[in-house]
Amino acid sequence: MTVEAPVARPDKPEKPAKEPNPHGMTDVQVLVFIVCAMATMTLALLDGSIVSSAVLPIVRDLDPAHGIDRFPWLITSYLLAATAAQPLYGRLSDSYGPRRIYLTALATFLAGSALCASAQSLTQLIFFRAVQGLGGGGLMSMTLIVIATLYPPKSRAGRSNTGGALIAAGIVAGPAIGGPLSQELSWRWIFLLNVPLAGLALAGITWALRLNVRGTRQPVDFFGSVLVASATCALLLGVKTYGEQHSFSGSVVPYFYGGLMMFVFFAVRQLKAADPLMPLTLFRDRVFRPAAILQFVGGFALLSLPVFLINYLNIVRGVDLDAVGLHLIPLAVGVVLVFVVWGRVIARTGRCRPVLIGTTATAVAATAGLALTVADAPLWQLDVLLVLLGAGLGGVTQIALFMTQSAADPEQLGVVTTTSRFATMLGTTIGGSVLGAVLSARFASSAKASGITDPDAAAARLAGLPPAVRHLVRGAFAHATGTVLLTAAGLLLLALITALLMGEVHVDELNEAAEEAREDARTDAEHPLSDPLHPAGPAGLGAEGGGPRGDGGRPA
């Protein structure tokens, strides 16, 4: 019997190997963590702005006599707490591991939201908003730290489109949700909705998140954290008071000088402390130093602009505050588009600097274009410029942060991330007050003939003004907004120069190093006896648990 030779079959193309899940997490755990992490980031973003659209119901319910004057403290207390706590979160994350600090921030945000919903007076609500801000400020930073711990740089860049969608949702949804929710149900639902969502996220992340990362167990400089928190609060209160008074006098002076003095004491403390909260050596780094400037200027000149655009659309274009979020959709589209583009470009080329320069230049052009045409631009032109502005808003600070995280030592990832976020939040808060003072000064000089020199009063009285006066007020507000945008464009030129001088971060090389580190961590987790510093390992025999290490838990 003849045996036929087997027929040769063409080789099937091999499927690319699936990227292993980080730290031994299952597919389900990765999915649950990503969904929960994105939900918590969305909540933190929304709660920074959603309260501003529920002014009247909150004031009417809790303090009808003096509530309007005290209402800004609901936003200020949240921002103060969120900003001042940033440096402490970074050091705690590096010392005790990001997972437990992340869960602590989420639990604090959950408790703060429940307390806000149950507040019986405006004073209580202001205090509880500070508690919520402590958690909310940590949520943003700790989510970024955890994701940077889980994924190497190239993989993070490829997943960046999700972050863009969340920022875009925060821009549009905050003003759009707060007003209708407080009017149809109750202002308490602004906070009550956080409770089940944050509770589910806390349970999901507790179950799903696995990190084979050991903290350095270094002591935390709590005295330094008190100094920097006090300095931050004093400085921001000074900026807020300056924005209200438009004069560097009165209570502004002690706030500013007190804040600056405490920052000096904090800097001296960081130079002498064995465990500095914010090591000043970071500013010698060729990536971190220019990136910190970009973070601050980007926050000052870009992230504070949506508030001014909302007021412009309301006063000049006549858009109702409940519907103003819909008119910010072009801005949100720009944010999403730039996240998709910069993530893919960096993932393919391994280079960050060209993308950073491109987005910063786009921000300069868009801001200057809006400044020169805001008085009489047709709506289609305004929409195009808002898309470009969104590209800058989603690119400058985010790419600078990505570069900083990618180049950071694993042992300093928490400090580097939160210091960068601290610079951004400080810039955004200061920028909002300073640019607000610019707006008020320009409006007062342009609207003299109307007899109204305060833009807030103009917004409140606009509907009842005679047509000629209303036209004059709208024109003055448009010109004042143009001055604000032109000021922001000038500052963004500084950011563009900084981006041009910044060194490149080669993601491919950093990605290989991160993959090796992940493999080492996985090996240590699976075979603890191979770790010479493990209590049961060679160096740990007879020792009480080894000692703290500055190398992230890997043998030297």
Automatic annotation (TrEMBL):
Domain Major facilitator superfamily (MFS) profile, residue spans: 33-506
Localization per record: Cell membrane
Domain of life from the UniProt record: Bacteria
Pfam families the record matches: MFS_1
Keywords (A to Z) from UniProt: Membrane, Transmembrane, Transmembrane helix
InterPro entries assigned: MFS, MFS_dom, MFS_trans_sf
UniProt GO MF annotations: transmembrane transporter activity
Membrane topology: Multi-pass membrane protein
Transmembrane segments: 30-59, 71-89, 101-120, 126-151, 163-181, 187-208, 220-240, 252-271, 292-312, 324-343, 355-374, 380-402, 422-444, 476-501
Region (Disordered): 1-23, 513-556
Residue ranges with Gly residues bias: 539-556
GO CC terms in record: plasma membrane
Compositional bias per record (Basic and acidic residues), positions renumbered to this chain: 9-21, 513-529
Descriptive protein name: Drug resistance transporter, EmrB/QacA subfamily protein
Organism: Streptomyces collinus (strain DSM 40733 / Tue 365)
